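Supplementary Data S3. Sequence and structure tokens for construct A.
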Amino acid sequence: WGANATTRMAPGNLDPTTLLVIGDTRETVPHFVEEQTCPIGFAAVDVDLYSSTTSVLELFRGPGRRMLRRTYVYFDDVADPQASFLHRFAGELLAIDEFNASTNDVKIDVWRGLRSGRIFPDSEWIEKMYIAHDLTAISAARPERAPLRDFRLMR
């Protein structure tokens, strides 16, 4: 989403499986949710404003949501070592907090443990990675295979 999409992101330059939606999130997100046929596995959110972020988070709300049990989300405006003005009381962070407070079905949280084992653990993007956990789907999931057994205990 965005009114100023760059030439590099023009539809002809994207992978055929990528969908670029341009426009006001208040108008485009509801239409996208209505037309969406496959689950969201990743979302990159770079909309800069609280109001736009609240619109985008509607992707993860409601019984008709189509998302993986754990959907990875990149929020561009939640961390910046040069920006002392970022806090939980405005912008994307406030929108995330309000979303989490308003629903029990999906919770969005920092992707914990992502930094561990990275070749470049100080990369700025790591602090911007979150996971939207569909708690309803996770609770309803049933293992597709028998539980693993500890071979040392088998006879």
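Construct B, processed identically:
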Amino acid sequence: TAGFDTFCWTRDGRGFIATRGDQLVRIDADTGQSSVIARNLGIVRFPESSPDGKTLAASVAPGGDSGRTWAIWLFPLASDGAPRELVAPGYDPTWSADSQRLIYEWSVEVSRDGFRVPIRALFEIDIATRVVTRVMPEETSGIGAFSPQTSRDGR
């Protein structure tokens, strides 16, 4: 993994997908051969393959270091379709077991003792409808909503 920022294994276990600067790269575990999935993205981090193996979600900051605003982007793995921004803002996505929804983190402001305070919160987006739902109630969001994970049975 030298030279790579973040990575995930492919669902078939034959390789992994890594981020390197402004690129997403697929690497074959047996041969070490790599192919670029997408480039010129700005900054890209935290790739996550969907359970059905058809789509990759990743955190992308299109502006790079200037104006670093993260969004969740989708990249087709089973075809040559173009990547698309799914929702803004968002960071560090993980898939539901049925590949229909993503759970991700983002900072939101809440009112506490008369002050606006930024906290990390978890959100879920339905891929088909783009409906976003906050997963954690406000009173528990301050406990540190980082790097969400889902169970294989979808609970």
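The longest strand covers residues 101-112. The two ends are 31 Å apart (CA to CA).
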